[in-house]
Amino acid sequence: MKKQTHSARGFSLVELLIGTILFTIITGIAFSLLMSAQLRYQGESSVTQAFQQANVALDQIVRDVHSAGYPPMSSLSAAVATNNPDKYALPFAWTPSYPGTPCIVGSTCTIPGQYDLIVEADIGDGQRVQWIRYSLQGTTLMRGLTPKVKFVDPVGATASSLAPYLDNVMNGNDSLPIFAYTFDNTTPPSQQQPSYIREVNITLIVQSAHPDPQTQQYRTITLTGQAVRFNPNQ
Amino acid sequence: MVIALFTLMLISVVATALILMAGTETALKGNYKSAMQSFYDAKAGLEEGRGRLWARNPDSIASCLIPGGGAMMPLNQVCYILNPSAGEVVNPQDPTNPYADTEYQTEWGTAVPTGAAYNTVMSDSPIASGNIAGPLYKWVRITPRTEFSGNIDVDGINGIDNLNPLFFDGMQQLLSTNGIPVAAASQVLTVTALAVTPYGSRRMVQYTVALAGSAAALANVPSALTLDGNGVSFTGPSAGTGGRGNGNFQIVGNDSNAPPGTQSGLPAIGYTNSSDGPSVSMAATPSGNYLSPAGVPNVDLVSLPPILQTPSGLQTLVNSITQSADLVLSPPPGTAASQNSLPSAMSASNPMIVVVNGDFNLHGNGTGYGLLLVTGTLDYDPDASWNGVILVIGQGTFASSRRGVGVINGAVFVAQTLDASGNLLANLGYSSFTQTGGGSGIQYSSNWVKATQALMTYQVLSFREIQQKTP
Q1: Rounded Cα–Cα distance for residues B117 and B78 (Å)
Q2: How many domains does chain B have?
Q3: Are residues B236 and B124 both part of a single domain?
Q4: pLDDT given for residue A190 in this prediction
Q5: Fewest 10 Å CB contacts: which of A217, B76, B201, B230?
């Protein structure tokens, strides 16, 4: 009788153990890398979302400043304009003393300020001339619209209309102004009054809504933009 | 084998995530870029429209605005500047066209007019010879402006309608009546532009424009030399200053461009505060040096349009002229710009607008042409001549103590609106005109005044963006 020569023995227990351990280690590494990629994706998504929201806010501020001062006082006859200041728009409202003696931006003005701005414009939404206010409260940039009312303080009038517009704005914490202004110098001497603001330079420092899952640190992005007022001085 | 599969899977997942993120960011930035591009394309359209309204523009669209000629654009008239891309049809009239003008219906309550009321010209932005594409706006529309189209009750009476065009007098918009243009004012026009980028971003923006207020003001120059303000002073050369090397000083209100055999013109000197009459009249001697047409006083109280009556109005005028200026000089405080800074291209056939924010020495032996606005002191050496209008608005000081034979053909206007520190006065101050050395004086010329008026461009009265929905 011919003896079988090929081996029919299986894996030994040791081989199985080693194989299982190797498989577990490799699988573990693979899944930990997958998890890491997943966490990084979540972190990036959070930053992207913050970027997108900040971008929308920045674009809206730019659009509002573009239209600041529409319609101007010269759109009306002088007699009508004198008695109906709610029918035309100054480019920017101010406090204190609105609509009396204009304050000096960066000095006597509370608004326009580094974190607070009130645009006057008819933005074509059927509400006529409105006060459009941006105000940083804590880490939330608020936005509010209310129809302009003659001989009324715009700060008080807009207070109740403010609603959260952009969260996690860190400019206040970093002491970095959201709004900075440049002025026309065509009226001598150069007076830094709200009506002569020509450009609003906007800086938004926005923090992601969630900490980075890997580092547990919040990530911030900085967006800058420049908005030009196209309506002429009044 | 298993290791290789897992590694491959891992790399695939990471790569997919990276591609997704990069794609999202690219899309975000692409959208933003496209939106910005369409805005500035539309803005470029507005500027082309505004620029081509100017009568001196080589590509003026005057015949598109007012095909039949006349003083103002008829209410039912519309002019489009079309700017289709290659192989594209832009038809604002056609509601099925992707670039249909739906805003017209909102502003006028009717569809875009047809027939003779609808005129088009092509954009001149693309430069075919250089194969340079222009901005991607699709059309620019120019219409008259009414209370209804602007959605503003300008006069506060009887609501808004589309019956009468609006006019601008340099300070305010005014409603005309019965189709008669408002005196000393220019018609307000609306310029609207639509831009659409290849990525589909749509932006529509709108100007209201009118000829610069200075154009209307210049049309109403009341005298050869106008001293605007309160407590004004005039000092002319004493008798006998003429002679060799010096002109026979005169201020002449007779229009040098009056048809032969006829007389027309203005007072030689005009003042605006009646209490200044005696002192000016007394200084304007010998009387033979101050001439005006028969029946018109040589020295007279004159009335001015509102924009010339207040410091703020005159400041608006200065700002408006500065917007149209060919050259703006700003000499450092304590120094004066000189005639050497005047543009060499300035000539009788190419008059210009020169604004000097500060003091200016008009010396030398040359001749200037156009509009000269000086906000500081104008020091005039009458070796030089000027054809056009000289405005000294600001410090309001015209000083001349030298000899010469130069003459100013046109008109001179002097007003003090600023104090010594440059602050705007509450009321007009005491402007002064002093020419003691001689020279040939001032000769009123209606043609040069008109030529200067024609230099004024259309100024922007207002800007707005009209929200768009993608059709």
Answers
A1: 6
A2: 2
A3: no
A4: 54
A5: A217
